[in-house]
Design brief:
Number of strands: 40
Distance between the termini: 34 Å
Strand content: over 45%
Helix content: under 10%
Radius of gyration: 20 Å
Low-confidence stretches: 1-18
Strand order of the largest sheet: 1-9-8-6-5
Number of helices: 0
Mean pLDDT: 92
Structural class: mainly beta
């Protein structure tokens, strides 16, 4: 492991003279010239003490990506490189993907890599675990994806989630029995994990296909997710759920996206509130006319009787210098205790089209959007946030995939 302290470099805007509703501090600049990780495509996750963890798509000792920790002490954030991926020739993963890491109850970290693994002929990706022993972290590959010929998924795009029984779930964008993606489960067993594919997507006759988001466990044994494509009329994406009946996993369609006004191409995992309502984003669609196919949306799935859902668009991005556009694959939204939603867009929000951080507050029967920050490609700030954001002690934390003082991306803090 390698520790590196840094001097904080801040970009702030006074509220009295700014269009943005928050102040931003770059808490770390990733450096692609020093063996550091760079290009953080995923968001962050926090432990119980407020330390932040994430991945970089490239960099590290072998240039296959890394896992890092950011720790605050005395007003200074210090980065520790926890792990550098070694690549498929070493039987390891390559290039961790957009969605953030996840902790288990014991403090172990889990994630996915898009490529790599022990199947060198496929290079199909992995599920990995990082467990801490003293001051070091040890990586274990829990599964190396195979390929469609072996009815396994491959090239996971999303991260992982746990249910209350300790089972872990994820999705692959390709593969499965029909080549258009899969849902898998890793169940804890004595001495390890048992892997199995629990659903094979099938795009025949308008079915769902190509999941970019992960799995969200819900009530009553239901598990929810999204697919980027699918649907009979427009092939614009779907929301589905899985449940077990007599030990067999069953898939049901919850909603097909039909046209631009609904949002099209859902690309995030779903966030569930205490009432069972769900929130997500689409990359295109909505009422934003500046983007041709729409600039993307935030939508809500409202739970009704008999586990039926109603979809509504709660915000359509408008692009340009005053609003964001195109929330990216792993971003989704984060929900606070008051029902406010937070997220990022990959583009929009400044003359350099460099991305935004936004907040959506409930206001009567609708939502009001505020831009907390707009990134800028020429100021030394980071830009192009691909991952979402998290809330720690009322502040917003996330990453940008590019920019910063070394060009390798940043980790940032926003005080709303």
């Amino acid at each position: 492991m390698r520790n590196k302290a840094l001097v904080l470099w801040a970009v702030t805007l006074m509220l009295a003279t700014s269009a943005w509703a928050g102040t931003e501090t770059v808490i770390y600049n990733f450096n692609n010239y020093t063996g550091d990780g760079y290009y953080p495509y995923s968001g962050l996750v926090a432990d119980k003490t407020g330390n932040l963890y994430g991945t970089t798509y490239q960099g590290g000792a072998n240039n296959f990506g890394s896992v890092f920790e950011l720790k605050l002490s005395g007003g200074v954030w210090t980065e520790t490189l926890l792990y550098s991926f070694a690549g498929s020739t070493a039987g390891d993963g390559e290039y961790p993907v957009q969605s953030p890491l996840v902790f288990d109850k014991a403090g172990n970290l889990y994630g996915t890599t898009e490529y790599g693994g022990s199947n060198t002929s496929c290079n199909c990706g992995t599920v990995f675990e990082l467990s801490k022993s003293g001051s070091t972290w040890k990586e274990t590959i829990l599964h190396s994806f195979l390929n469609q010929a072996q009815k396994d998924g491959y090239f996971p795009q999303a991260g992982l989630s746990f249910d209350s029984a300790g089972n872990m779930y994820g999705t692959t964008y390709y593969g499965g029995a029909f080549g258009v993606g899969s849902v898998f489960q890793l169940a804890p067993v004595k001495g390890g994990w048992k892997y199995r594919v629990i659903h094979h997507f099938d795009n025949a006759s308008g079915g769902a296909a190509y999941p970019q988001g992960g799995i969200t466990p819900g009530a009553n044994g239901y598990y929810y997710g999204t697919t980027y494509y699918g649907g009979f009329a427009y092939n614009a994406g779907s929301i589905y759920r899985l449940f077990q009946a007599r030990n067999v996993w069953v898939a049901q369609n919850v909603f097909y996206f039909l046209e631009g006004g609904d949002g099209i191409y859902p690309d995030s995992s779903l966030t569930m509130d205490a009432k069972g309502n769900m929130y997500g984003t689409t990359y295109y669609g909505g009422s934003g006319e500046a983007c041709g196919n729409g600039c993307g949306t935030v939508y809500k799935m409202t739970l009704g009787k008999n586990n039926k859902y109603t979809q509504s668009v709660i915000y359509s991005f408008q692009a340009g210098v005053k609003d964001g556009q195109n929330p990216y694959n792993g971003a989704g939204v984060t929900l606070d205790a008051k029902g406010n939603l937070y997220g990022t867009t990959l583009f929009g929000g400044s003359t350099n089209n460099a991305g935004t951080v936004y907040e959506l507050k409930p206001s009567g029967s609708s939502y009001k959007e505020s831009l907390l920050w707009s990134f800028d490609t020429v100021s030394g700030d980071g830009y192009y946030p691909r991952g979402g954001v998290i809330l720690v002690n009322g502040n917003v934390y996330g990453t940008t995939s590019s920019g910063g003082s070394h060009g390798g991306g940043t980790a940032f803090e926003i005080k709303p």
